[in-house]
Amino acid sequence: MSHDDISQGTDEGRPASRSGGRKRKKAPGKRRRGLKIALGIFLVLLLAGGGTVYWMYSSLDGNIKAVDINKALGEDRPEKLPTTGQNLLVLGSDSRAGAENKELGGGGSVGGARSDTAMVVHIPEGRTKAVAVSIPRDTLVTRPECTKSDGSTMSSANRVMFNSVYSLAGPACVVKTVEKMSGVRIDHYLEINFAGFKDLVDAIGGVTVDVPQDIDDKASGLNLTAGPHKLNGTESLAYVRTRHGIGDGSDLGRIGLQQQFMMALLSEIKSQDLLGSPTTTYKIASSATKSLTTDEGLASLKSLSDFARSMNGVDPSSMETIMLPVAYDKQDPNRVVAAEPQAGTLWKAIREDATIPESAKKSPATGG
């Protein structure tokens, strides 16, 4: 991982260089937007909740780390949805804590952690469908005043890069930042780190993806020709994280790859008879829970399984995925800002548990 990935705001660190004067080409076809790994975890946990195999997973509770979001944020929060709908903030973190994480993503000399992938998963009333809104990590946001994990206070700041909030103030502050920028109450929090992603893919024997174009990313070492490839865990991690080898080199270009990989991952899990192979299912669940952090309300296998079962009616393949509409920042074209009125309309629809208008899904910045 290069030094540019740890920059924030308008400091000197930059993502893959894109000159402000360069003509931005429109990405070919309809760009599918970003999930990453959350639905795969949900599916695994759903399987783990089956009555015939649940006993195998009771010992996994201790693997799950918890963050008391409600205690950290207090009462100054948006109101809950007026329906039984739910909102889940999912983070894929690039923590370099531990030897295994340090070896992934070229991060041997990089300290700290950032939210590499972030999305708000909205599950409307009835729980028969869902929509995931990806927040590009290069988005400039206003970080509210936050209480850090050590109890100290971090003052608010304008024009900070979204993925820096996690490293500077922790997960509770990420939740607070999302709530302040959207007005959406976050009911649950779920995070998985680099090593967990890698181990999950390796546990299922790899994932086959149809690479849409040649990728030569010298930063990550990923070198793939267009066409089908079966990727192991390390290769899969590089694939969903590549930015230098796709589009304009910004965070936006890889969001489509993340969505494509997520569908391939789900297909691979579905093709394996996990209920008929408790050993494999246990291995997958163990890989997931060891690198999982949730809010207190989901911090047990039973709670996670109950939540997953409540989503039985949601077909992952039909989940709608949207990138938060963003525009290139006028002061720094290597950063983006929420595009209005699209972003405001999108968040309003989620707050009201209403249908999201098509006009609110169009992003001026495409990453092409």
Number of strands: 17
Radius of gyration: 19 Å
Low-confidence region ranges: 1-37, 42-53, 96-111
What's the order of the H and E elements? HEHEHEEEEEEHHEHEEEEHHHEHEEEH
Helical residue percent band: 25-40%
The helix-and-strand class reads alpha+beta
Please state roughly what percent of the residues sit in beta strands, choosing from under 5%, 5-15%, 15-25%, 25-35%, 35-45% or over 45%.
15-25%
Shape: globular
Overall pLDDT, averaged?
76
Gap between N and C termini:
22 Å
What is the number of helical segments per DSSP (H or I, 4+ residues)?
11
Largest sheet: 7 strands, mixed
Strand order of the largest sheet: 1-14-9-2-3-4-15
Describe the structure in your own words:
By secondary structure, the chain is an alpha+beta fold. Helix content is 30%, strand content 20%. The chain has helices at residues 38-48, 69-73, 99-102, 164-169, 171-182, 194-203, 233-241, 251-271, 278-290, 301-309, 342-351; strands at 65-67, 86-93, 115-123, 131-134, 140-143, 146-147, 153-154, 157-161, 188-193, 207-211, 215-217, 222-224, 227-231, 292-295, 320-323, 326-328, 336-338. Helix 6 packs across helix 7 and helix 7 (233-241) packs antiparallel against helix 8. The radius of gyration is 19 Å and the shape is globular. The protein starts with 37 loop residues before the first helix and ends in a 17-residue tail after the last helix. 49% of the residues are buried. Mean pLDDT is 76; it is low at 1-37, 42-53 and 96-111.
How is the topology of this model organized?
Layout: H1 38-48, E1 65-67, H2 69-73, E2 86-93, H3 99-102, E3 115-123, E4 131-134, E5 140-143, E6 146-147, E7 153-154, E8 157-161, H4 164-169, H5 171-182, E9 188-193, H6 194-203, E10 207-211, E11 215-217, E12 222-224, E13 227-231, H7 233-241, H8 251-271, H9 278-290, E14 292-295, H10 301-309, E15 320-323, E16 326-328, E17 336-338, H11 342-351
Parallel strand pairs: 1-14, 2-9, 4-15
Antiparallel strand pairs: 2-3, 3-4, 5-8, 6-7, 9-14, 10-13, 11-12, 16-17
